[in-house]
Amino acid sequence: METNHEESVVDSLSTFEEDVLSGLGKVNKSLPSKYFYDAMGDEFFQQIMHLDDYYLTNKELEIFTSHKQGILDTISDGEPFRIIELGAGDGLKTKVLLKHFMESGVDFTYTPVDISGNVLEILEENLLSEIPDLKLAAYQGDYFEALAEISARPEKDIVFFLGSNIGNFSQEEAISFLSSLRGQLKPADMLFMGVDLKKDPAHILAAYNDSMGVTKEFNLNLLDRINRELDANFDRDQFMHYPYYNPQTGECRSYLISKTRQDVEVSGEQIHFRAWEAIFMEISKKYDQVQLSELAKQTGFSEVETFRDKLNWFSDVVWRNE
C-alpha cells in the first residue's frame, strides 16, 4: 500500500474531528458516512452483506456469476488493462470476475483502493492465497488521489465502483463525483458501476432496517468510534436508528434520533440535542433506467452495456469515457 501509515493516522484523526464537529454543529445535524468504516464498522458491514434482507450483495454476485464472460467481452479489447476498484471491501464479488479473467488468460492488474488500511490488508492476504498469480497493487487513500496517480499510466483503465456505492450520493453529488471521476480518465477508459434499481419499497426499506438489527449496530458504532477517538460521551441507548424510503426520489435515508433532550461532549465541546432531533447518517439512492441514462449523459459518459439479475433488482452498467 502506497501510504505513510503514521502520517495518515494523524491526518485522518484531525480531519475526523473537524468533520464530526462541523456536522454536529449544523442546524440539521449530520455525520459523514465514510467514517462508518473503522475496524468494527468493517466487521459490521461484512455481516450486513451476508444478511438475507440486504439483497444487494447477492444480486450483484448473481450478475457476476451469470455474465462474467459477457463482462469480460465488454471491457477487454485484448490489450493489457488495469482494474481500479474504488472501495474494494472484502472482494467477495470481485473475486468471481478476477478468477474468470485469470482463467481466460487476459493480461490485467488489479488495484483495489480503499480508505481503510485494515480492509486492504485482509483483502490482499485473501486474494493472494486464492489467486496467487494475480497481479495486485493495492492503494490506501482517497479515490481521486489514487485515480490521479494510477490513470497517468499507459494501460487502459477500468474503474470498478460496485455495490451501489453511487447510491450514497444525492443527485447533485453523483453528477459532481462522476464528472470528476471522468476527468481523471483517459479516452476509452471505462466505468463499471453497480446500481441498485427501484423496486417494491418494502424490500428496499428492509435492507436498511434488517430484522437482525445489524444495520442499527453499524450506525450506532459511529457514536462508539467518536467516543473512543474524540473523547466523547455519547450514550448509544439514548439514540434510535431510523431509516425511511421515498419512492419518488428513490432515496433511502438513515438517521440516528435522540430520544431525549441531552448534551454530549465531543473533544471538549458541548453538543446540544433536542428531544427527537435527528442526525442524518447516510443516503442510499435507487435508480431506474431513464434516470441512469440521464446520469450518463449529464456526466459525459457514453453507455456501452447493462447487466441485470433475473428479477431486475440490480444492474451493473458499463460506461465509456469518450
Task: Offer a concise description of the structure.
By secondary structure, this protein is α/β, with parallel strands linked by helices.
Q: Helices, strands, pairings?
A:
Blueprint: H1 5-24, H2 39-49, H3 55-75, E1 81-86, H4 94-103, E2 108-114, H5 117-130, E3 139-140, H6 143-150, E4 156-161, H7 171-183, E5 190-196, H8 201-207, H9 214-229, E6 239-246, E7 251-258, E8 262-266, E9 269-273, E10 278-285, H10 289-299, E11 301-308, E12 314-321
Parallel strand pairs: 1-2, 1-4, 2-3, 4-5
Antiparallel strand pairs: 5-12, 6-7, 7-10, 8-9, 11-12
Helix pairs in contact: 2-9, 3-4
Determine and state the CATH class of the largest domain. Alpha Beta
Number of domains: 2
| Run of helices and strands | HHHEHEHEHEHEHHEEEEEHEE
Q: Can you count the beta strands?
A: 12
Instruction: Give the uncertain stretches in residue-range form.
Output: 1-11
DSSP strand (E) fraction? Answer: 15-25%
Largest sheet: 7 strands, mixed
Mean pLDDT: 92
Distance between the termini: 31 Å
Q: How helix-rich are the residues, as a percent range?
A: 40-55%
CATH homolog superfamily of the largest domain: Vaccinia Virus protein VP39
Strand order of the largest sheet: 3-2-1-4-5-12-11
Shape: globular
Cα-atom Rg, whole angstroms? 20 Å
- The name of the CATH topology of the largest domain is Rossmann fold
Helix/strand-derived category reads alpha/beta
CATH architecture of the largest domain: 3-Layer(aba) Sandwich
Number of helices: 10
